[in-house]
């Protein structure tokens, strides 16, 4: 059975994603899992989606990746970026980055969401 961690990142700069992908190649050599950019030309609505979006569904990923997502030093170019982490169908965390400090928050009263 697999343990899936899904991650969606919106608004980050390509250099930040490159840093995360380089870490993944070095620290998860067996699986070679990477973030991929989503083609937002397929998004709904009548307007053009104005930020880039990346996603990955990781199989048995290290908790170190989640720590990196929380670390402000990871985000040199992530002004107003958002990362959504759904961990094994058990919990969801949402992080908003203001470019200088990682401010973790969740949609329900500042608490981690579990279902």
Q: Which stretches are low in confidence, meaning pLDDT under 50 for 5 or more residues running? A: 105-115
**Taking all residues together, what is the mean pLDDT?**
77
Provide the β-strand percentage band. 25-35%
Percent of residues in helical segments?
10-25%
**Radius of gyration from the alpha-carbon trace, in angstroms:** 14 Å
Determine the number of helices (DSSP H or I, runs of at least 4 residues). 2
Brief account:
The protein is α+β, with helices and mostly antiparallel strands. It contains 2 helices and 7 strands.
Structure, explained:
- With 115 residues, the chain is of the alpha+beta class.
- It has one domain.
- It has two helices and seven strands, in the order E-H-E-E-H-E-E-E-E.
- The chain has helices at residues 14-27, 63-70, and strands at 4-10, 36-37, 53-59, 81-87, 91-97, 102-105, 113-114.
- Strands 1, 2, 3, 4, 5, 6 and 7 form a seven-stranded antiparallel beta sheet that branches.
- Mean pLDDT is 77; it is low at 105-115.
Question: Which descriptors would you attach to this protein?
Answer:
115 residues; alpha+beta; 7-stranded antiparallel sheet; 19% helix; 31% strand; globular; disordered C terminus
